[in-house]
Design a protein that fits this description.
- This protein is mostly helical.
- The chain has a domain of about 230 residues.
- About 65% of the residues lie in helices and about 0% in strands.
- A two-stranded antiparallel sheet has the order 1-2.
- The radius of gyration is 22 Å and the shape is globular.
- The chain starts with a helix and ends with a helix.
- The relative contact order is 0.11.
Length: about 475
């Protein structure tokens, strides 16, 4: 393992963060708020450390797979560390533990927060907070690769290290083309949602920061009450539409827009994704009517928003789900575990693996009925190999083990079971809100310090799909 190679590419990651820190500082300067100095000092410090390896390490294109993985994981960890600097310099509710939690939550697009008063933050710091969503949603390394000139084989290795393996199964473009598609869809959706929100009454700053969080399926809002603050059905509908779109494989969105045969209308995964949410909304609406909301309209309105928000791992709120009946809460837990499609900005187990698991289960039943039969397994027009099935089932198993372990730690620290389990599920799935004391209208400030570090780890495990982070800390990988 050549450490100088990792340092050079991490320099690009730091420069990307420095750019957004200076943009945030510019917003503070325009508004004359008190975050100008913390953001400026942070930007200068990150810029200095980003330039250093680029000045002393020559360009390198022939990197190994292990080096690619190390670059990706170290890039994420460095970004999370960088994200804490303006928070700590600002002070307020931000102890180092709280700043780390908020930063990790931002970059991993989780949206869980320790802040009791979000609106007390200056505009520049609020912009930086949501910018971490936007950087992390697209993927830090993918952002870097998109703005750099071709780096030959290094591009492919870094791209494959960043992208979810299950997403790579359905992305058939060359690396540079795939990067252009991802970035164009990502930026395009952000611009379109920002315009739509401004048209329906949101101010420009709130529209942009809300769009950052929506398209990244993050959930940070500039308001304490999240989307409920606006009391606007049109705004909620706009956010719902863009949450659903952001939960779909970006390659399929691009294919649909350009008339490609590989589009979302023909994808069994997308059909299940939409159908599952419609069924969840229907059941939740029926359960909420009379028990919580007296009108069918209100039951439909709030269940639709909350189910889509959780089912895409976004985590915005327009209602207090902590007072919902058990069935509606269980539906939220299910969608917290499942989330949306691979190749999107969503977290969780992902719809693709749920479909894969369902197909494997049905095939196993048929094999028990007909032991000598050779039964092929397909999703759409794609044949699924045994290796892919094993990888998917193993991931779901490991995911459950991490969830259980995190829950055990939180309960040992004195957190009640509902809050511990739902908080662990929400952070591992990069969803944001859970139930109990970490519900949709609450926050994670009451979680003990060790619990916050535990949940920060589950966020990173969820965002890096568990294996990447584990491999990074195996000593044998660094001896190659």
């Amino acid at each position: 393992m050549r450490l100088y190679v990792i340092f050079r590419y991490d320099g690009y990651v730091l420069l990307l963060n420095a750019g957004f820190l200076f943009i945030s500082a510019g917003i503070s300067a325009v508004n004359g708020d008190a975050a100008l100095l913390p953001l400026t000092y942070s930007g200068l410090l990150v810029l200095l450390f980003g330039l250093f390896p680029l000045l002393f390490v020559p360009p390198i294109k022939d990197i190994t797979n292990d080096e690619g993985l190390a670059i990706v994981v170290s890039g994420w960890l460095l970004s999370c560390l960088v994200g804490t600097i303006p928070y700590v310099l600002w002070g307020g509710e931000f102890t180092f533990t709280n700043a780390w939690f908020e930063s990790v939550s931002g970059y991993t697009t989780t949206g869980s927060s320790i802040l009791n008063n979000i609106e007390a933050l200056p505009m520049g710091l609020l912009f930086w907070r949501n910018a971490t969503h936007w950087i992390g949603g697209m993927g830090i390394i993918i952002f870097v690769l998109s703005v750099l000139p071709s780096m030959g084989p290094a591009s492919m290795i870094l791209y494959r290290s960043e992208m979810s393996p299950v997403a790579m199964e359905s992305f058939h473009y060359r690396t540079k083309r795939a990067l252009q598609i991802l970035l164009s869809v990502y930026v395009g959706l952000t611009v379109l949602e920002s315009i739509a929100l401004v048209v329906f009454g949101m101010n420009l700053f709130d529209a942009v920061t809300t769009s950052f969080a929506t398209i990244a399926t993050g959930g940070f809002s500039p308001k304490n009450a999240s989307i409920a603050y606006y009391h606007s059905v049109p705004i909620e509908l706009i956010v719902i539409v863009f949450m659903v779109l952001s939960g779909i494989h970006f390659g399929l969105l691009f294919g649909t827009i350009t008339g490609n045969a590989k589009n979302l209308l023909k994808s069994p995964v997308v059909r299940y994704y939409v159908l599952a949410m419609l069924v969840g909304i229907g059941l939740s609406t029926i359960n909420l009517h009379r028990l919580v909301y007296q009108s069918w309209w209100n039951a439909l309105r709030y269940s639709s928003f909350q189910i889509v928000s959780v089912g895409t791992s976004t985590g915005f709120a327009n209602a207090n789900s902590a007072i919902w009946p058990p069935l509606a809460q269980l539906l939220l837990v299910f969608f917290t575990l499942q989330c949306a499609c691979a190749g999107s900005t969503s977290g969780g187990i992902k719809v693709d693996r749920i479909v894969l698991f369902g197909k494997a289960f049905v095939r196993r039943i048929r094999q028990l009925q007909h032991p000598k039969a050779i039964i092929a397994m397909k999703i759409g027009d794609k044949n699924i190999t045994e290796a892919v099935v094993e990888m998917g089932v193993m991931y779901i198993t490991v995911y459950g083990a991490v969830l259980l372990f995190s829950t055990l730690i939180l309960t040992a620290l004195g957190v009640d079971l509902v809050s511990a389990f739902s908080g662990s599920a929400a952070t591992l799935g990069n969803v944001g809100p859970g139930l109990g004391i970490v519900g949709s209208t609450a926050n994670f400030s009451a979680i003990p310090a060790l619990g916050k570090w535990t949940l920060s780890l589950t966020m990173l495990l969820g965002r890096l799909e568990i294996y990447g982070l584990i491999l990074f800390f195996i000593p044998k990988m660094w001896r190659h």
